[in-house]
Amino acid sequence: MNVLIINAGSSSLKYQLMDPETGAVSAKGLCERIYIDGRLTHNANGKKIVKDIPMPTHSEAIQAVLAILVDPVDGVIKSTDEIDAVGHRVLHGGMEFFDSCIINDEVIAAIEKCIPLGPLHNPANLMGIRACQEVMPDTPMVAVFDTAFHMTMPKEAYLYALPLDYYKRLKVRRYGFHGTSHRYVSKRVCEFLGLDRSKTRVITCHLGNGSSMAAVDGGKCVDTSMGITPLEGVIMGTRSGSMDPAVVQYIANNEHMTVDEVLNMCNKKSGLLGISGLSSDMRDIDAAADSGHERAIIARDMLIHGIRKYIGSYAAVMNGVDVIVFTAGIGENGAELRERVMSGFEFLGAKLDPVKNVEGNRKESVISTDDSKVKICVIPTDEEIVIARDTLCIVTGKPIE
Ligand code: ADP
Fold it and tell me: Does the model's pTM come out above 0.90?
């Protein structure tokens, strides 16, 4: 079986063609500069191809993807009939979606309804869906939401303490993001360790350009760090993470900026970039901090401090913790950061093994000592396999795992 996985952004579109049963990826690539000029980067048959192709809209981008997938030389299938289903990543499912689902007119209307909550991503995701429907009208399509996994949070975790009317009328609440990743690593780590997921308390640390933490108790998310948007939580590449919302008003008044301008600054110019004044990329921060750059040192310390705070609070929320998992770019590669995050957590029963930690980069591994009560692990995330498997389950009528 072949599932085409689509992750459409406002000017880009990532794709993968995967067999969901084996996880084998036969082709993957990226359309960039949609609406500007258009460039396709395609990886298949051990070869990377870059082509300039006009992409005035997402439709032409999808057409370019299908054309290269069936190309006699660079393609991997003979005809688009060999694509059995399409799985779309959708950012914001609001309070409409608790699970992945087949895309029909009602689902499209509900994704549209969530646009005010995801004003940048949802319209792009919809463009990807519509473009695919145009060129593959008979192929079943499935939507997989970044927010869905977090919908099991209890009220005390997802409500903001504002007049309740704002929740009721405007659906102002914590939603959380990276749900597909938190779901994958929290499940995979239990399989990897041979633990019963329904009885295991896991803290997942997804640390990438965007970072979020989650508390997963018995396979269900009970709390997460991102909020109504991905701005809340730990300090990220360019996002501030949590802060007193009065900061927005204070800066707006003093700098004669609008709320939108201040929030744009909080999203795009803050975080590691804003504090270090150097870069949003952790590799640059590490290199600068190691050579004594003071602002880079503070930026890194702030990230470590934030992650530690969430680990402590999520252990409290779940009356303990059995497994702590690190994933995504920084979580999978950052051995030194993991060591500093976990230092001093012996009081909680979590003891990192410094040698296993260094060896654990980029692969499924246990990085705690043999006598550590809490297992600390690295699990490389794989959001695409989740999208492909959900798509397979939904189109074949099997229950989603
Ligand atoms: P995205 O959120 O865009 O998917 P990723 O999960 O790819 O991001 O993570 C990107 C982050 O991972 C960047 O900050 C990058 O510097 C960091 N990263 C990648 N490799 C390393 C490494 N070897 N050591 C520390 N950080 C790393």
Answer: yes
> What's the pLDDT at 333?
98
* Distances from the Cα of 49 to the Cα of 24, 37, 45, 53, 66, angstroms: 20, 17, 10, 12, 15
Write down the pLDDT at residue 53: 97
Instruction: Round to whole Å and give the CA distance between 220 and 239.
Output: 27
Ligand 1 centroid – CA 208 distance (Å) = 5
Does any ligand 1 atom lie closer than 6 A to the CB of residue 271? no
Q: What are phi and psi of 31, to 5 degrees?
A: -100, 130
CA distances from 381 to 1, 43, 277, 323, 328 (A): 22, 20, 29, 16, 6
Which amino acids are annotated catalytic?
A: 146
Q: Is 180 in the pocket of ligand 1 (CB under 6 A)?
A: no
**10: pLDDT confidence band, cut at 50, 70 and 90?**
confident
CB of 273 closer than 6 angstroms to any ligand 1 atom: no
Range from 24-28, 105-109, 115-119, 362-366 carrying the lowest mean pLDDT: 115-119
Q: What is the mean pLDDT of residues 129-154?
A: 97
Strands 13-18 and 375-378, by their bridges, are unpaired
| Spatial separation of the C-alpha atoms in residues 258 and 277, rounded to whole Å | 23
Average pLDDT, the chain: 97
The pLDDT tens digits of the residues spanning 336-351 come to 999 999 999 999 999 9
